[in-house]
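Q: What structure does this chain adopt?
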Amino acid sequence: MTTAGDIMHRGAQWIPAHETLDRAAQLMRQLDVGALPISDQNDRLCGILTDRDIVVGCVAMGHDPAKVTAGDMARGTPRWIASDADVEAVLHEMQGHQIRRLPVIENKRLVGMISEADLAMHLTDEQLSGWVESVYAKS
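A:
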Protein backbone atom coordinates (compact mmCIF):
# COMPACT_ATOMS: atom_id res chain seq x y z
CA MET A 1 0.00 0.00 0.00
CA THR A 2 1.35 3.42 -1.00
CA THR A 3 1.03 5.97 1.81
CA ALA A 4 1.11 9.73 2.18
CA GLY A 5 4.63 9.34 3.56
CA ASP A 6 5.69 7.59 0.36
CA ILE A 7 4.54 10.35 -1.98
CA MET A 8 5.10 13.49 0.10
CA HIS A 9 7.86 16.02 -0.41
CA ARG A 10 10.09 15.77 2.66
CA GLY A 11 11.71 18.74 4.33
CA ALA A 12 8.63 20.93 4.58
CA GLN A 13 8.96 23.74 7.10
CA TRP A 14 6.50 25.68 9.23
CA ILE A 15 6.25 29.42 9.34
CA PRO A 16 5.39 30.47 12.91
CA ALA A 17 2.14 32.42 13.16
CA HIS A 18 3.98 35.44 14.62
CA GLU A 19 6.33 35.78 11.62
CA THR A 20 5.62 38.53 9.11
CA LEU A 21 4.61 37.96 5.52
CA ASP A 22 7.85 39.44 4.19
CA ARG A 23 9.73 36.78 6.16
CA ALA A 24 7.33 34.13 4.83
CA ALA A 25 8.02 35.27 1.25
CA GLN A 26 11.77 35.08 1.89
CA LEU A 27 11.40 31.54 3.26
CA MET A 28 9.27 30.53 0.27
CA ARG A 29 11.98 31.83 -2.06
CA GLN A 30 14.71 30.05 -0.08
CA LEU A 31 12.80 26.73 -0.10
CA ASP A 32 11.46 27.20 -3.66
CA VAL A 33 7.87 26.56 -2.55
CA GLY A 34 4.56 28.36 -3.02
CA ALA A 35 2.99 27.47 0.32
CA LEU A 36 3.99 27.15 3.95
CA PRO A 37 2.07 25.54 6.79
CA ILE A 38 1.53 27.99 9.66
CA SER A 39 2.28 26.81 13.19
CA ASP A 40 0.86 28.16 16.43
CA GLN A 41 2.83 28.69 19.64
CA ASN A 42 2.59 24.92 20.37
CA ASP A 43 4.01 23.91 16.96
CA ARG A 44 0.58 22.78 15.80
CA LEU A 45 -0.89 23.41 12.37
CA CYS A 46 -3.15 26.48 12.36
CA GLY A 47 -3.27 27.27 8.65
CA ILE A 48 -1.49 27.35 5.32
CA LEU A 49 -0.06 30.47 3.71
CA THR A 50 0.39 30.65 -0.06
CA ASP A 51 2.30 33.08 -2.21
CA ARG A 52 -1.07 34.11 -3.64
CA ASP A 53 -2.34 34.90 -0.13
CA ILE A 54 0.57 37.30 0.35
CA VAL A 55 0.00 39.05 -2.97
CA VAL A 56 -3.80 39.16 -3.08
CA GLY A 57 -4.61 39.24 0.64
CA CYS A 58 -1.92 41.67 1.72
CA VAL A 59 -0.05 43.57 -1.00
CA ALA A 60 -3.02 44.14 -3.32
CA MET A 61 -5.06 45.33 -0.33
CA GLY A 62 -2.44 48.01 0.38
CA HIS A 63 -1.08 46.38 3.55
CA ASP A 64 2.57 46.22 4.49
CA PRO A 65 3.88 42.60 4.43
CA ALA A 66 6.44 43.63 7.06
CA LYS A 67 3.57 44.31 9.48
CA VAL A 68 1.06 41.55 8.67
CA THR A 69 1.75 38.15 10.23
CA ALA A 70 1.23 34.66 8.87
CA GLY A 71 -1.25 34.13 11.69
CA ASP A 72 -3.29 37.10 10.47
CA MET A 73 -3.78 35.22 7.20
CA ALA A 74 -4.72 31.85 8.76
CA ARG A 75 -8.41 31.25 8.12
CA GLY A 76 -10.66 28.24 8.37
CA THR A 77 -9.85 24.76 9.55
CA PRO A 78 -6.48 23.55 8.29
CA ARG A 79 -6.53 20.21 6.51
CA TRP A 80 -3.78 17.61 6.93
CA ILE A 81 -3.16 13.89 6.55
CA ALA A 82 -1.29 11.32 8.64
CA SER A 83 1.90 9.97 7.07
CA ASP A 84 0.56 6.41 7.21
CA ALA A 85 -2.71 7.23 5.40
CA ASP A 86 -3.13 5.50 2.06
CA VAL A 87 -3.26 7.34 -1.24
CA GLU A 88 -7.03 6.97 -1.47
CA ALA A 89 -7.36 8.89 1.83
CA VAL A 90 -5.03 11.58 0.48
CA LEU A 91 -7.16 11.93 -2.67
CA HIS A 92 -10.38 11.95 -0.65
CA GLU A 93 -9.09 14.74 1.61
CA MET A 94 -7.80 16.87 -1.26
CA GLN A 95 -10.83 16.30 -3.48
CA GLY A 96 -13.34 16.75 -0.69
CA HIS A 97 -11.93 20.14 0.25
CA GLN A 98 -10.71 21.17 -3.22
CA ILE A 99 -7.16 21.75 -2.01
CA ARG A 100 -3.91 21.52 -3.94
CA ARG A 101 -1.43 21.15 -1.09
CA LEU A 102 -1.72 18.94 1.96
CA PRO A 103 0.58 18.91 5.02
CA VAL A 104 1.62 15.47 6.22
CA ILE A 105 1.77 14.98 9.98
CA GLU A 106 3.47 12.26 12.03
CA ASN A 107 3.47 12.20 15.83
CA LYS A 108 1.84 15.65 15.80
CA ARG A 109 4.76 17.11 13.82
CA LEU A 110 5.06 18.26 10.22
CA VAL A 111 7.08 15.76 8.17
CA GLY A 112 6.20 16.78 4.62
CA MET A 113 3.78 18.25 2.11
CA ILE A 114 1.89 16.69 -0.76
CA SER A 115 1.49 18.92 -3.80
CA GLU A 116 0.11 18.54 -7.29
CA ALA A 117 3.57 17.61 -8.54
CA ASP A 118 3.84 14.82 -5.97
CA LEU A 119 0.49 13.43 -7.08
CA ALA A 120 1.46 13.62 -10.75
CA MET A 121 4.56 11.55 -10.08
CA HIS A 122 2.84 8.83 -8.04
CA LEU A 123 -0.75 8.39 -9.25
CA THR A 124 -2.13 6.39 -12.10
CA ASP A 125 -3.50 8.39 -15.01
CA GLU A 126 -7.02 7.50 -13.90
CA GLN A 127 -6.44 8.65 -10.31
CA LEU A 128 -4.80 11.86 -11.47
CA SER A 129 -7.61 12.61 -13.92
CA GLY A 130 -10.26 12.17 -11.23
CA TRP A 131 -8.32 14.37 -8.81
CA VAL A 132 -7.83 17.18 -11.34
CA GLU A 133 -11.50 17.10 -12.35
CA SER A 134 -12.74 17.31 -8.76
CA VAL A 135 -10.27 19.90 -7.44
CA TYR A 136 -10.51 22.25 -10.41
CA ALA A 137 -14.25 21.85 -11.01
CA LYS A 138 -16.28 25.01 -10.59
CA SER A 139 -18.55 24.91 -7.58
